Amino acid sequence: MPRRSELDVLHAMLYSISQGYSSKSSLMKNAGLGAKQLQEYLEYTFKKDIVDEKDGRLVLTEKGRKVLEELEKISELQAEIAMRLSVLQEIIEGEEN
Questions:
Q1: What's the pLDDT at 1?
Q2: Which of 1, 42, 50, 81 sits most deeply, having the most CB atoms within 10 A of its CB?
Q3: Are 45 and 51 in contact (CB under 8 A)?
Q4: Could you tell me if 17 and 50 are in contact, meaning their C-beta atoms sit under 8 angstroms apart?
């Protein structure tokens, strides 16, 4: 399995929090993060005011919701690019003159 980019990890983490996986253990499992990796990303997102902790549960801040929204758009664009590259490859490989 290829290594995920930092944006992919951040996206998985924020999406998981938005879906209610708000304890550290459930977030680790759902976002596919190890304990050290989770801690690093939590420190970063707390510092950048993307994630907050309320009553022992992780929540997205307003800024965090905006970041997640943009990450969703990027993910959609990546999927579109991958599909178009596949079509292009089929055109190039499939048409012999």
A1: 55
A2: 50
A3: yes
A4: no
Condensed to tens digits (0 to 9), the pLDDT of residues 36-62 reads 999 999 999 999 999 999 998 999 999
Dihedral angle computed from the Cα positions of residues 67, 71, 77 and 78, in that order, rounded to the nearest 10 degrees: 150
CB neighbours of residue 32 within 10 Å: 16
11, 49, 50, 58: which is closest to 31 by C-alpha?
Answer: 11
Strand partners, 53: 58
CA 78/CA 75 separation, integer angstroms: 5
Average pLDDT over residues 8-13: 94
> What is the DSSP track for 49-70?
TSEEEETTEEEE-HHHHHHHHH
